[in-house]
Write a structure and sequence with these properties.
Blueprint: E1 2-3, E2 16-17, E3 19-25, E4 30-38, E5 44-47, E6 72-80, E7 86-98, E8 101-114, H1 119-122, E9 129-132, E10 140-142, E11 145-147
Parallel strand pairs: 4-9, 5-8
Antiparallel strand pairs: 1-2, 3-4, 3-7, 5-9, 6-7, 7-8, 10-11
Amino acid sequence: MEKLPKATNNVGTEDYHIYTTLYIGGTDKRNEFKLMIDTGSSWLWVTDRDCTNCASTSNRLDYDSRNLKDNKMSATLAYSFMDGAWIKGKRMTDNVSVGRLNAEAIDVLSVLEVDPNSIFATNKWNFDGILGLAPAIDVKTKDGVAIR
C-alpha cells in the first residue's frame, strides 16, 4: 500500500490507494497496466493508445502490438463517477491476467477521453486505469451514457 500526502476528502482522513499489475491480451502478446483498485465501481478500464487527454503515458492499450482476432469492440460508452468525473471509451472483451489468475472474455473499457478536471487527466498518482472490485450490476445505456 502506498501512502499519499494528506488529502482533503469527505471524512477528513488521509488518502490511501492500492495498486495492482494487470495484463490484457494473450500470453504471447499482452499489455501491462498499473491499476488503482476501486471498491466503489465494478468497471475495469485502461487508457487507450489513442486517448486524447489521458495523463498516463507509460502504459496504454495498443491493439497493433498483438493479435486481437477474438477481441470484440463496441460503440463508444461514457461513464460518470460519484464525484462527477467522467470517462469515455470503447467497451471490449479480451483476456485478463492478475498474478496467476487468468480469465477469458472479460469486459474492459478502453478509455479514449477523460474529464479534463479529474485525477485521470492530472494523474498525480501515476496509474493506467481502474480495477473495480464492487459487485457488477446490469449497465443500461441511454444515448451511449451508462446509467444506473
